[in-house]
C-alpha cells in the first residue's frame, strides 16, 4: 500500500515545497510518513470536525489547502481549535498534509482551476517568480565517428529525467556547441581518455540546460552518474530570469467580452457566491486577472498587466482604491475563490494512485463566513 511519504512525494512533484512563500508552512503537518494510507479526505481547511469525518469515513490522511499549523505551537493543551485539531489527529492516527502557496504558485494548481471555472483562455502567470532558475553548462567528449559513443545524448537524457531542460511547455531543451578541451591526468587518476601525466587534447561538446534550483541536487547526481569522466567539469549559474510557469496569480481571456454586470453575474454563477464586492467600471470585460485567496498584494500587478478585471478575495476598504479606475476589482471571498482546490487534489491523487484507496472530498463545511442576503 502507498504510504504518507508516497503521497507527499506525489503532491510535491506537482507543487514543490521550494515554491511556497517564506511565511508559509506547507508539507506534512502531523503523522508518520511511513503510515500506509487507508483513505484520503480532502478539504480546504482542517478542523476537529474534519478529522472526525475522516475517522468516520475510514480515512487516515487529510489533505488540506491551508496549513492547520501556520504559526509555531508552544503547547498542545486543546486551548484553541488548532490545538484541538492536532490532538484529534494524533489520537486517531490521522496524518495531515497541506499544500498552500506552493499550490498557488504552479500551473495546474489553485489559479488554473479558478481560471477553468471562469472559462478563461490563453492563460499565463500574472507575477512570475525570478531567481529560481539556474543554467548548467557541462563538457562531454565528442566522437561523431562513433555512433555507439553518443555521450552527449546519454548525459542529456539523464539530465532531462532528473528535471532539467524544461522551458515553459517545451521539454528536452538544450544548447550544444563544439570545441576543444585540454587536461593532464595526475598521479592516481583513472582517466576515461588519455594516460597519467600525459597532456591530452580532446574534441568536446559544451551542453547547456536550464533547471529549477530545487532540482539542483538531483540533476548533479544524474550528471555524475551518466558522465564518463572521472572528474566532471561543469558550471552552475543562478539566473535572474523569471520562471514563466511559477508565480502568483493568473491572467486569461474570456471567450467573448462581457458587460461589467454580466461578468459579475458570471462570477456569482460559476463561483456560487451571493455577493461580489467590486469597484465601479463601465468598459466591457475581456481580459481577466485572478488570484485565489487573499490577493490584494497583486492589485498593482493586475493593473499594470492591462486587464479589465481582477478577481480575488480578502480586499480591504482602502485597497479597493488601488484599482484607480483602470480595472474592475472584484472580491468574491477567500473561501469562494479557493473552494475548487479540492478538485485539484482529487485529480492529482486519482491520477497518481488510481483506485488504490478512497479519495473523498470532505462534506464538513469549513467556511467561517456566512451571508444573509
UniProtKB/TrEMBL annotation:
Superkingdom classification of source: Bacteria
Annotated signal peptide: none
InterPro entries from the UniProt entry: DUF34/NIF3, DUF34/NIF3_bac, DUF34/NIF3_sf, N-reg_PII/ATP_PRibTrfase_C
Keywords tagged on the record: Metal-binding
S-adenosyl-L-methionine is among the record's keywords: no
Name listed for the protein in its UniProt record: GTP cyclohydrolase 1 type 2 homolog
Family to which the UniProt record says this protein belongs: Belongs to the GTP cyclohydrolase I type 2/NIF3 family.
